[in-house]
């Protein structure tokens, strides 16, 4: 087996008493696109900055193609490119100058591809960075990273601030990278983006990887959404084993079922159901169930006021 | 019930409304009062030590007369720190020893604080959050000015309190009124340059540019005051420079409050202009804006060190120009300065024994000032490196195949070269000035003296780099702390017999007064080695920590 593009071994990071990452084991294989999802403060950026050697792990280690991210930083960085969600560049340099500088420091640039990228993103490289809008600044960092054709792309919310058209252009770039056998680690809050691009998806929560797998695997593991409409009153389904997130609206009920659906169907059958709908959860529902109940949090926040 | 509830909300909204109109003033005031009061304490303690040192060291009128004979008509010294009026009395001596020095330090503080609190905050994007509220641009500028004013006032109050306290001592004998007038004179430097810095912040496109503008103004006003005080018939020039006005206040000797008129006038003009310009320009832009597009790739250096050099070029050039200008100025009055030093019999015999000319003796004092300037270069080089990290620009480089040690190593090389070149430049410029005055000064010995004054700056730089790696958020505290300590210990140490080890620890004290006394190259080598070892240790430690933002 070849060495994975990215591998972490019990990677832990504490900031004082904050435990940002708690023993993470993650693998991104060569040619694979892995998505990383998680609520704000879950530890995605921490993970990525550890991979890049910008942060020093409290325990454990991270490797890029088998090279330790702390001890062999320079060698590892020859093979990777990074896009932060927001970069602070040198405000007085123009876009072209920034690309020139970063290209020189990286050492390898695919010149033709750079031209293609500038064209594709419609970037005006004559403008000083100071004069660029947020989205255009983001395009500049994207071009700077993609033009190196590095073996691993580490992307932390790379499309923040991009318009939908540019989002499309970005997706095209990731597809191209995948075709060329580049590996990608993508952290994002845009679920459709992750769903469209990633082979595997990991969900991070409070510094732990709570779920990891392909979309299909994750769907199987998770609950089924069931919606039913009744003739008369809605039966009480909350006590049935495996049923959760029950919502009742008039004569309609919506709930999620984990494990066997039989007990629920028996209750429905005895009550006179007129319409029954069941489907696999959307990515959004899947993640909301992992991110914790947002309604409960909003309620808490309200009470806090 | 309902009405009560909505009343409550209304009241709360009203409160937010009012507080949003003062939030910038409060934020600015809070920060600047803290720092201003701190500097006021340093100022007060400096005044106290000078006054007490004089009172205890020169007890008899005879002893004081010797001092008067040596300094009262010395144009060289007068050009450096102002004329020595009535230095036969404790208040007179205290005013002479403290006023010019503290006014300049206060002015530098004023520039750094005002540009940081206005332009710096704006550059960091923090003002945007406040400006979307109830505040207009003009209003924000007014508030910031008020806040800064509070900082200047805090500096005045703590200086005044300590001066008045020490003045009560029968040995010192400075009245409360005199102490207040004196503290106000000292604080005038800070207050005027708080206003100058605010105006420059409106004119320029970045904080750094604003600080350079304001520093240039301070430089020019020092130079003009120097010319006015160098015994020529250009004494009227004192009335065209802010530092001259402060001198004309003549605190503790023969007060002339009329000189407050131009001081207050300047502050008002600067404040009004600041508010008006703030209302006219875009947030984030300057009145002197530059082009926003560049059609071709300029011949920029394409490696990180070259870029660092390129980006700090204007600051480094400004330093070089000021060092050269002061060198020339100081040098060109070397002969007259030296003549007067050697006209004092006691000093003449000392210098004769050492085998140096009076001009050289004078230049050694002049070069001490260069030493402080070079230390400021060191402080700013460390601060710039830290800023590259805290802003996140360093991230862009370190995610490339570019190691942390290369980055810091390059930064160290740049700093060391800047400091050493600055030292040599100081030597050459002073020599050139002296030669133009037909003084007999040797170029080689002046180059040596220039290197000699660069050594304390190297020490501050070395420790600054070390602080950068182990306590990145306290870099400025460490470097400015060292600067103040070295500087104060050196100056205070001249008058009082303080503990031996404190003196020995001060880098300025270790520095021999070249060219008047032979340079102690061994000590210099040891100090430079300590500086480089500390910096080197810093490079090692830098690989062990997280990158840290603000
Ligand atoms: N420099 C730091 N000092 C202290 N705590 C930090 C630091 N950086 C991150 N943290 C903490 O570590 C945790 C993880 O933060 P991280 O930035 O990795 O989250 P994230 O998943 O990227 O969130 P987001 O989706 O908002 O970008 C948070 O609790 C955060 O407060
Ligand atoms: Mg993040």
Structural description of this entry:
The complex is a heterodimer of chains A (305) and B (550). Chain A contains eleven helices and 15 strands. Chain A is of the alpha/beta class and 305 residues long. Chain A has two domains: 6-214, P-loop containing nucleotide triphosphate hydrolases (Rossmann fold), CATH 3.40.50; 222-304, Alpha-Beta Plaits, CATH 3.30.70. Chain A has a six-stranded mixed sheet with strand order 7-8-9-4-10-11, sandwiched between helices. In chain A, strands 1, 2, 3, 5 and 6 form a five-stranded antiparallel sheet that branches. Chain A has a four-stranded antiparallel sheet with strand order 13-14-12-15, covered by helices on one side. The radius of gyration of chain A is 23 Å and the shape is elongated. Residues 293-305 of chain A have low confidence and may be disordered. By secondary structure, chain B is an all-alpha fold. Chain B has two domains: 21-288, no CATH class; 301-550, no CATH class. Chain B is 77% helix and 0% strand. Chain B has 22 helices and no strands. Chain B has helices at 2-57, 61-71, 75-81, 90-123, 126-131, 137-167, 176-203, 207-228, 242-248, 260-280, 304-311, 313-332, 334-343, 345-354, 358-390, 393-398, 404-436, 443-470, 475-495, 500-505, 507-510, 521-542. In chain B, α13 (334-343) packs across α15 (358-390) and α15 packs antiparallel against α17. The interface between A and B is large, with 38 and 33 residues. The complex binds adenosine-5'-triphosphate (ATP) and magnesium ion.
The mean pLDDT of chain B is 82
Please give the domain count of chain B.
2
Shape of chain B from CA axes? Answer: globular
Task: Give the class of chain A from helix and strand content and strand pairing.
Answer: alpha/beta
Oligomer: heterodimer
Q: What share of the residues of chain B does DSSP label as strand, in percent?
A: under 5%
What structural category arises from helix and sheet content of chain B? Answer: mainly alpha
Shape descriptor of chain A: elongated
Find the CATH superfamily of the largest domain in chain A.
Answer: P-loop containing nucleotide triphosphate hydrolases
Q: Mean pLDDT of chain A, nearest integer?
A: 87
Bound ligands, each once: adenosine-5'-triphosphate, magnesium ion
Q: Specify the helix fraction band of chain B.
A: over 70%
Q: Using only CA atoms, what is the Rg of chain B?
A: 25 Å
Rg from alpha-carbon coordinates of chain A: 23 Å
Number of domains as seen in the coordinates of chain A: 2
First-residue to last-residue Cα separation of chain B:
47 Å
Distance between the termini of chain A: 55 Å
Tell me the number of strands of chain A: 15
Residue share in helix of chain A? 25-40%
Order of helices and strands of chain A: EEEEHEEHEHHHEHEHEEHEEEHEHH
């Amino acid at each position: 087996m070849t060495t994975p593009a990215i591998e972490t071994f019990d990677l832990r990071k504490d900031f004082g008493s904050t435990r940002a990452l708690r023993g993470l084991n993650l693998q991104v294989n060569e040619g694979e696109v892995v998505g990383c999802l998680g609520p704000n403060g879950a530890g995605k950026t921490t993970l990525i900055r550890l991979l890049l050697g910008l942060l020093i792990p409290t325990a454990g280690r991270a490797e890029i193609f088998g090279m330790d991210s702390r001890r062999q930083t320079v060698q590892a960085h020859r093979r990777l490119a990074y896009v932060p969600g927001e970069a602070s560049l040198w405000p007085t340099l123009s876009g072209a100058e920034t690309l020139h500088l970063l290209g020189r420091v990286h050492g390898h640039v695919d010149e033709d591809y750079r031209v293609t990228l500038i064209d594709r993103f419609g970037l005006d490289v004559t403008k000083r960075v100071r004069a660029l809008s947020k989205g255009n600044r983001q395009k500049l960092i994207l071009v700077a990273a993609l033009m190196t054709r590095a073996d691993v792309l580490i992307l932390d919310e790379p499309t923040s601030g991009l318009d939908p058209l540019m989002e499309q252009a970005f997706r095209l770039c990731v597809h191209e990278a995948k075709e060329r056998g580049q590996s990608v680690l993508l952290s994002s809050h845009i679920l459709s983006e992750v769903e469209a691009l990633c082979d595997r998806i990991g969900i991070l929560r409070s510094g732990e990887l709570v779920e990891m797998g392909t979309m299909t695997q994750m769907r199987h593991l998770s609950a089924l959404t069931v919606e039913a409409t009744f003739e008369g009153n809605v039966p009480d389904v909350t006590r049935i084993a495996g049923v959760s997130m029950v919502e009742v609206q008039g004569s309609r009920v919506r709930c999620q079922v984990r494990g066997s659906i039989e007990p629920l169907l028996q209750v429905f059958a005895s009550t006179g159901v007129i319409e029954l709908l069941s489907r696999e959860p959307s990515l959004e529902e899947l993640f909301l169930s992992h991110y914790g109940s947002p309604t409960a949090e909003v309620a808490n926040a309200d009470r806090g006021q | 019930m309902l009405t009560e509830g909505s009343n409550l909300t209304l009241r709360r909204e009203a409160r937010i409304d009012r507080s949003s109109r003062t939030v910038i003033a409060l934020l600015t005031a809070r920060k600047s009062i803290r720092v201003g009061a701190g500097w006021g304490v340093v100022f007060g303690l400096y005044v106290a030590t000078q006054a007490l040192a004089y009172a205890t060291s020169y007890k008899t009128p005879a002893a004081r007369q010797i001092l008067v004979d040596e300094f009262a008509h010395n144009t060289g010294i007068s050009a450096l720190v102002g004329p020595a009026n009535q230095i036969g009395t404790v208040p007179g001596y205290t005013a002479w020893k403290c006023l010019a020095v503290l006014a300049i330090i206060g002015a530098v503080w004023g520039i750094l604080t005002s540009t940081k609190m206005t332009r710096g905050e704006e550059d960091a994007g923090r003002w945007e959050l406040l400006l979307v509220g109830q505040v207009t641009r003009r209003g924000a500028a007014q508030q910031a000015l008020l806040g800064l004013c509070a900082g200047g006032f805090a500096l005045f109050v703590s200086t005044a309190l300590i001066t008045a306290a020490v003045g009560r001592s029968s040995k010192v004998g400075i009245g409360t009124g005199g102490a207040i007038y004196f503290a106000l004179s000292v604080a005038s430097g800070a207050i005027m340059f708080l206003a100058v810095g605010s105006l420059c912040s409106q004119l320029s496109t970045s904080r750094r540019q604003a600080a350079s503008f304001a520093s240039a103004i301070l430089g020019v006003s020092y130079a003009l005051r120097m010319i006015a005080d160098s015994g020529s018939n250009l004494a009227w020039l004192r009335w065209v420079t802010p530092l001259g006005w402060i001198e004309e206040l003549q605190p503790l000797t023969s007060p002339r409050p009329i000189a407050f008129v131009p001081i207050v006038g300047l502050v008002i003009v600067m404040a009004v202009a600041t508010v008006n310009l703030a209302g006219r320009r875009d947030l984030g832009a300057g009145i002197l804006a530059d082009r926003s597009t560049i059609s071709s790739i300029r011949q920029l250096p394409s490696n990180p060190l070259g870029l660092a050099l390129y980006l700090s070029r204007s600051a480094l050039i400004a330093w070089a120009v000021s060092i050269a200008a002061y060198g020339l100025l100081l040098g060109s009055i070397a002969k007259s300065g030296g003549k007067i030093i050697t006209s004092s019999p006691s000093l003449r015999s000392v210098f004769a024994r050492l085998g140096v000319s009076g001009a050289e003796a004078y230049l050694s004092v002049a070069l001490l000032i260069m030493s402080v300037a070079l230390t400021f270069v060191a402080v700013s080089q460390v601060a710039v490196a830290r800023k590259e990290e805290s802003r996140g620009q360093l991230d862009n480089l370190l995610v490339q195949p570019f190691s942390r040690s290369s980055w810091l190593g390059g930064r160290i090389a740049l700093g060391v070269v800047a400091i050493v070149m600055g030292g040599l430049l100081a030597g050459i410029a002073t020599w050139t000035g002296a030669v133009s005055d037909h003084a007999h000064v040797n170029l080689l010995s002046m180059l040596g003296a220039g290197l000699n004054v660069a050594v304390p700056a190297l020490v501050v730089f070395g420790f600054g780099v070390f602080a950068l790696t182990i306590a990145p958020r306290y870099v400025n505290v460490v470097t400015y702390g060292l600067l103040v300590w070295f500087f104060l210990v050196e100056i205070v140490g001249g008058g009082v017999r303080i503990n031996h080890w404190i003196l020995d620890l001060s880098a300025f004290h270790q520095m021999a007064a070249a060219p008047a006394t032979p340079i102690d190259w061994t000590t210099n080598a040891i100090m430079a080695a300590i500086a480089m070892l500390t910096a080197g240790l810093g490079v090692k430690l830098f690989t062990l920590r997280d990158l840290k933002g603000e």
